[in-house]
Amino acid sequence: MKRYAKLHRSGVTEQPHLAVTMPEIVRTQLSESPEGTVLKFTQRVPVDTAHRPTTLASSAGEIGSGIGLPVLQPSITSLEVESVLIPMIGRKRIRTYTLCVSSQVGCAMGCGFCQTAQMGLIRSLKAEEIVAQYFAARHQITRPDPTAEIANIVFMGMGEPLDNLTEVLRAIAVLTDRRGPGLSMSKITVSTVGRIDGLLKLAEQVKQTGWHRLGLAVSLNAPNDQVRSQIMPINRAMPMARLRETLENWPFYSGVHLCLEYVLIPGVNDEPVHAEQLASFVRGNLFEGPESMDGQQIKRFPGAPLRGLINIIPYNPRHNSPWPAPTEEAADAFMQRVKDRGVYCKRRRTKGRDTMAACGQLGNPEVTRKAVAAGRAAPP
Ligand code: SAH
What we know:
Helix content is 27%, strand content 23%. With 380 residues, it is α/β, with parallel strands linked by helices. Helix 3 (127-141) runs parallel beside helix 4 and helix 9 packs across helix 10 (328-340). The radius of gyration is 20 Å and the shape is globular. Residues 113-114, 156, 160, 191-193, 219, 221, 261, 263, 313, 315-316, 318, 359-360 line the site of S-adenosyl-L-homocysteine.
């Protein structure tokens, strides 16, 4: 037990009767932001066929993009896991980091705006490979700066956490273990495309002692089913009304809020009427906005207001993106419109775009190219 604590707290991997090998850090890329340096790092993991789903009956075939598993070229013997340390200046002007971890290499969900989706799902990560990202961030990457504190961990890197729920839960159990890293549950957030089957299982976990304060973020990204199904294939199987119902019934404990992420994409989901619809999604029966705008009916979502806030993420163009990034003014105007409807809404500042470390930009172009060449992944 002492050795376990020493490993996690002090980062000592070589101890009497204990030699733990951590995945090698392949590279670290830095980019500056107003709040400090954004550090993207990648770790090498084996291809490991045991953790590659083998049939199309996996989530990829059923509710993901329908593109199946990319066929890996024999020349690919290892994979890279990407993680990002994002600096934040807190209330007391103290700098902390949010660590963004990956739960899979690639992703099966096929969202049209996301770089990772271009790879298809290569494989799911094991719990220890998820924990190893924290270990590297805490004991290897930030070590030169003893004041650097990792205040939050978000599952917003590569992959869909609810597509790999068992391993994600095991990793969270280790990260919050008081004898180990000892992070508090409220500092961890799982972000999902909104897989309802996974959300129901996660809700059961959240009801367990010690898990009540786990954070949940849902990538809504669209104000209505038409737009959402177009950019997020999951929505065709699990439309917004069902998602809303699941979120309405979420086991909220005190102080916990749902975060609804909304990637703002010019020409796709950024019209004034979309802001109205989005407000209606959050407020449910309370929505008192207009019935229609610009000749478009505003869909009313019945039900109680959601206990959540909206996080607007300005779109970060992926490789070969058909859409540009929104302007600052457009993002502010959209946000203001949602706020005017009484919905709490904030904006995520873009960091790390120049090193492809920003939201939705993680993904190895090399693997993507090879997967596309093998005819399995969606072309960019
Ligand atoms: N699969 C999970 C977690 C990974 S994505 C999920 O969907 O939530 C983490 C966040 O980045 C999501 O909110 C996603 O919508 C957003 N994102 C994806 N691609 C993006 C892009 N190109 N620009 C900005 N945000 C993006």
